[in-house]
Amino acid sequence: MFFREFIKTADWKKEKHTPAIDVSQPVKKGDVVKVEVSIGKEVPHPNTTEHHIVFMEVYFLPRGSNSLYSLAKVDFSSHGASVEGPNTSGIYTVPSVSVNFKTETSGTIYAVSYCNIHGLWESFCDVEVE
Fold first, then answer.
1. How far apart are CA 110 and CA 94, in angstroms?
2. Selected catalytic residue, list 14, 15, 42, 104
């Protein structure tokens, strides 16, 4: 099997595992592009010791290129566990990422999230540079 066969996708407005990507638009050459990626924007994702988002990764693919640029890799480490057991600490990392980068070319932002129960999920968003 190919790795891609394990990656799921769906509309983030209906699926709690799919990354929602918000990009500042319009983008001018050389300007800072502000990217916000979150899980559970419309449909809340459980954030418990038993069911949580482990990590997210954000990439940029310039138009006409076949090479991805890694913009961010973030691990979410607090899921409510403490020495007293699962869901006892009251500390839960919120699965969201803010990334700023510069580009002089249009392209596509890709985001991947990993749920400890439901696996890998991806989404993408085009960025148009003026």
1. 20
2. 15
Residue 19 belongs to what domain range? 3-127
Active site residue 36: no
Q: Is 51 an active-site residue? A: yes
Query: Which pLDDT band, with edges at 50, 70 and 90, does 81 fall under?
Result: very high
Is the pTM value of this prediction over 0.85?
yes
Among 2-16, 37-51, 80-94, whose mean pLDDT is lowest?
Answer: 2-16
CATH number at residue 23: 2.60.40.730
122 assigned to active site:
no
Sign of the torsion formed by the C-alpha atoms of 42, 48, 50 and 55: positive
The answer to whether residue 45 is catalytic is yes
